[in-house]
Amino acid sequence: MAAEVPTIYEWAGGRAAFERWLGRFYDLVEVDDLLAPVFGGVVTVQHRTDVVTWWCEVMGGPAEYTRSLGGYEHMLGKHRGLHIAPEQRLRFVTLLSQAADDVDLPADPEFRAALMGYAEWGTRLAVHNSSDAPDVAEHAPVPRWGWGVAPPYQP
Predict the structure, then answer these.
(1) 90, 128, 137, 155 — which has fewest CB within 10 A?
(2) Which residues, including other chains, have CB under 8 Å from residue 82's CB and lie 6 or more apart?
């Protein structure tokens, strides 16, 4: 019988891996001229913790963001009115990728494609949701990201 395909959350190494990764990411953000102003120059411990909880849920971990923080609607509220610029979105994704390298997240192409696929999708949605667009979806489930077309390679 074939082994069950792990979630992206499990493959990454669970919450501890997401804490290392996003901790490093926000350290990079705090010294980045383009992104630091979005966070007032400092990314709070609470913000870091909440974002880790979001990513863990999205990547197949516990649904704690939905249970404890209010799910999609809470995340939407954090982005409304920020007016995230396209160049900020791109820098955000770039620093996520750099941070993944810096903390030695799994480097297999399937994992990185899934992780960065969500980063691309989510940041493009965040740009839209942070604008004054009239068609922002006010209610939605927290996404549950999967492997897409390429599950993790296991020899």
Answers:
(1) 155
(2) 38, 130
- CB burial of 10-40 (b: ≥16 within 10 Å; e: otherwise) equals ebbbebebbbbbbbbbbebbeebeebeebee
Looking at residue 149, what is its pLDDT?
A: 67
58 contacts 143 by C-beta, under 8 angstroms: yes
Condensed to tens digits (0 to 9), the pLDDT of residues 95-141 reads: 999 999 999 999 999 999 999 999 999 999 999 999 999 999 999 99
Number of residues in the chain: 155
Which residue has tokens 């030695």? Answer: 104
Residue 39 gets which letter from DSSP? G
